[in-house]
Amino acid sequence: SLEKKTKEELPASFTENEVINKLTTENEQLKELVNSLEKKTKEELPSSFTENEVINKLTTENEQLKELVNSLEKKTKEEFPASFTDNEVINKLSEEKEHFKDQVSSLERKIDETEKKYEETSTISEERMNQIIETESKMIELKTNMQRLEEKLSDMETENQIFRKQTLLTSSSKRITPAAIPPLENGHPVAVKTLGSESVRRSHMERHQESVDALFKCVVKDIGFSDGKPVAAFTLYNCLLHWKSFEADKTSIFDRLIQLIGSAIEDQDNDNCMAYWLSNTSALFFHLQRCLRAPARKPPTPTGFFGRVTQGFRSSNSLSSGSFDVEHQVEAKYPALLFKQQLAAYVEKIYGIVRENMKKELSPLLSTCIEEQRTRNDDSQPSGSWLKIIECLDRFLKILKENYVPPILIQKVFNQTFQYINAEIFNSLLLHKECCTFNSGEYIKSGLAELELWCTEVTEEYAGSSLDELNHSKQAVRFLVSQEKDEISYDDLTNDICPVLSSQQLYRLCTLYSNENENENSKSVSTDVTTRIKLLMTDDVGEDDKSFLLEDNSSLPIIVEEVSHSQKDKTIPKVKPPSELLESASFQFLHDYS
């Protein structure tokens, strides 16, 4: 029963230590059992038993117990071989544990490598997709630009042919006397008109001339605006359209109109007058640019497959360009095309006058600011000169807005004006040692902050990208007010602080920076940085060369034809005609255009 009990209580999964502990416990229990039996025997045996009998009985029981213990030990040894020691079990388990650890580590490495490759592949795929999208966008833009250039070239060729033809006709008319040529109509001689028909024609011409005189007498005055549109410009266009002046082979009305504009802008110091005529001439030009077209020429029939496909592509694009071009364009003749070119020149001229007037007013204010930064000690607050610059900008913006100058032209004016401000400030920093200081940087920084605030307040509609024109000055100031300049690395200087400055400008800025005040703000960059910058400077640039100065491109003329493409408003405006003209019966047709 003890063996059976041992089998039941000792599962095969027990380790040797557990078996030994179990056996030890059983032995202790057996010993206690023996002691208990001996005690019980003494109590239960009658006194009549002899000592030998007791001894024999106990001896027999002890032998039985010994045999039982030996049998149990033998059975235990059979079930747990002696070769299966405790150390071997531990070693085997340790080996398996290490093997599993290696497998887990290997799997983790493979997972990490796979994730890394996936991320790299995803990044590459995303970059390639972006490149493809960007390339497609550029291709579409290039196709659009190429088509636009081809159309513009075609128009220019047509206009040039008209101009050459007109020149030949003019030169021929000078060589041949009028008496030698009979009157022609469509290439055939016609009978000389009678006196009656001649008087009727002369009467009609006189009435037309009176109408033209009345129109010019009206529009030469400031007749204001209607719903934000210049009344003079669109009244002129509507009259010229009604009189079919654009389609006339010969007329003097455009010459008179050009002379009228030239006389109106003689007072170039009158900013309000210049803005008024900039508004009218630009509005008229932009409208003519949309509504007039040169006489159409039949294009040559394409012979190849690619040519036919290209022609089909162009025709589909032209049909989808909007109904405005198809319904309202007028086929203009030589005088009208010439007038459009002359009008464009006047728009550019008046625009230049407005821009130069603003620069002329800003120049002494900027000079005062530059002088103040050389002598001023307190650096945190903008001076009165900066505030006067803001007042000047506000004044011109108010004039331009009150005269409804197109926002695209206002943006151009302020962009070029800020170019001028940027060049003046930046060059002053690099020309004068006393300007290239920490305090000077703080002073200019406060002024630039005022300009940035102004651009934000007037919104992008009028300021455009003017703030970007100050990048050179802003980055130079960023360097001047930097703390611990001697710890600035070359990469920090060229990539983060002053990325738009050239090597010559960086070298000049770093070497001119003042070390007069012996404090940490006055230390310039290390010699290693200046050495690296100097290595990038071209060999043909000398120490005294002024190549570091920023070129002032603010006086470059605009190309008004390019500006016209940026016009967003493509509608035909309805402008209320001047009441002065509506009093005449000859101008009642203007009601149809209002």
UniProtKB/TrEMBL annotation:
UniProt keyword list: Coiled coil
Superkingdom of origin: Eukaryota
InterPro entries named in the record: Dilute_dom (IPR002710), MyosinXI_CBD (IPR037975), Vascular_dev_regulator (IPR052072)
GO biological process: actin filament organization
Domain Dilute: 255-539
Keyword Coiled coil among UniProt keywords: yes
Record flagged with keyword Cell membrane: no
Name of protein: Dilute domain-containing protein
Pfam families given in the database record: DIL
Residue runs in coiled coils: 20-166
